[in-house]
Amino acid sequence: MIRLFLALLLFALAPVTVRAGTIEAYQVVQHETGLPLVASVYRPSGPPPAGGWPVLYLLHGYNGDERSWPDLGGIGPTLDRLIGTGAIPPLLVVMPRAGNSWYVNSRDVGGPGDIETAIVDDLRQGIEAAYPVRHDRGGRAIAGLSMGGFGALHLAFAHPDLFAAVASLSGAIWHNVPPEDMDKSPDALALIQDSAYFHRLDATTVTSGIVLLNDGPHFNGAFGTPFDPRRFNRLNVFTLLEEQRARGRTLPAIYLASGDDDGLQLWRGTLALFETLRADGIPSQLRITDGAHDWSLWRQSIEGALIFIAGNLTSPP
């Protein structure tokens, strides 16, 4: 009996053997421009389930590309471990190269291009034709960091019929430009961070002020050149949220995370969106953790996001 107990104990303590997935290059042609859209794709090991793998679209930040998450974020080993331990199911993860597009359509104003259409139409349809994946909303999610956090929310709120869950890590989130500031010059809109950027009107809550963007070259013409505040407002996550709410649309499950030492102070926008969601009666999850605006935080926070996403995927129809 003792020998049997010891044998079972050793078996329980033995390390879990994790079969590594593969990360491969993928490319699809954008129908509107004829240009290629490239991506890195994590493919889990083993055969897909009968209904196909769920799909996560994982977006990079400003100045990133399709190799940011694999090379800097260590996403492959993280997925291998979480899948191997049963924390999440096997899923396909698609990481597109979007440039500094802010994941919005901007070809009509000479911006980086129509990356929103390229992702939700061309890339999605290409992935669903090339891989054994699910084609339904319940098997599809989107997430991203910084600019990609904004992009994930923008795409999820603009196309709530496509995604079951969305996660924003250190998302570059700002309130809409107020009506009284609409006709100011771009220079006047370049607000100073330690004053007008965030004004705390009510000492009882940190999000009662307005979180305003600091216009600059980082927008890369995505909202017009010069920066067009009306276009920004129309494409902003706060506008899309209220539009879909007014239409009675079901939004994806929402996960927001940011570091408390974010040098860009992007936790402010995350808190503002969380409070707006709560005021609207829309469930969401918020995580403010110890960390800055860097990969050490995102490598950690992506795990919670993946587990949240997995918990909000549904069974195949």
TrEMBL record:
InterPro entries: AB_hydrolase_fold, Esterase-like, Mycobacterial_A85_antigen
Molecular function as annotated in GO: acyltransferase activity, transferring groups other than amino-acyl groups
SUPFAM superfamilies: alpha/beta-Hydrolases
Signal peptide: 1-20
Alphabetical UniProt keywords: Signal
Name the record gives this protein: Esterase family protein
Pfam families: Esterase
